[in-house]
Amino acid sequence: MSEEFDRLVEIMVKLRGPDGCPWDKEQTVRTLKKYLLEETYDLLEALEENDIEEIKSELGDLLFQIIFLSQIFSEKGDFSIKEVVNNISEKMIRRHAHIFGDKSASNSKEVLSIWEEEKKRENNEEAHRSLLAGIPKHQPALLRAQQISSRVAHVGFEWESTEDIIEKMKEEINELSAALTKQDKQEAEEEIGDLLFTLVNIARHMNIDSEFTLHKTCEKFKKRWRYIEKSLEQKGKKPDECDIEELESLWQRSKEEL
Predict the structure, then answer these.
(1) What is the CATH number of the domain that holds 35?
(2) pTM attached to this predicted model
């Protein structure tokens, strides 16, 4: 394995070298950010489709981005890819003290407790440091909401049952309805946010990933809408030429056939 990994690193070094590729030599940390995101989303799509060959390919693309970024930092004298690999290896050993150390954990909750304790030691966190520190604010909002609610739940700030969260959801719907009645856009925006956050908590309580759940719903909607478009194309029509009754009829048919 070391030989294959070293070969990939050597390819990256050559691409960035004096006689390397002009495009690769021009890249910076800033310009590579978008490619890192693109490769990550390509991998997520491959995983969702369970396309083994595509997963293998996209994992390689993502790995190359990590090596690319590491090489740029290495050229500046900050750190090398070897240090990146050693750092994550040591971190995983420390944070799995129930496997590599003298601690014990019989379930996932205990494992997460050990993980968070070790994170605090690593970051020299003091007692007053926020439990929610370190959650990236630029990541997808549903994912961020799930991480925030998960962390506070681990210390006991949690509903006792899913039914309790559903009652909270009903409360948020009533508050949103009141804001809409008043035509108060700012209040409606706030209530929509509260409602979305509550829905994330329902999903989390049921061990459902909100981000991917909404993604799947978007894909389902796209397929049904494409069914409508194809059905109308056969009649020589377009969606904007139909009334809502015809569109709704086709939508219901798509639910039955897809």
Answers:
(1) 1.10.287.1080
(2) 0.66
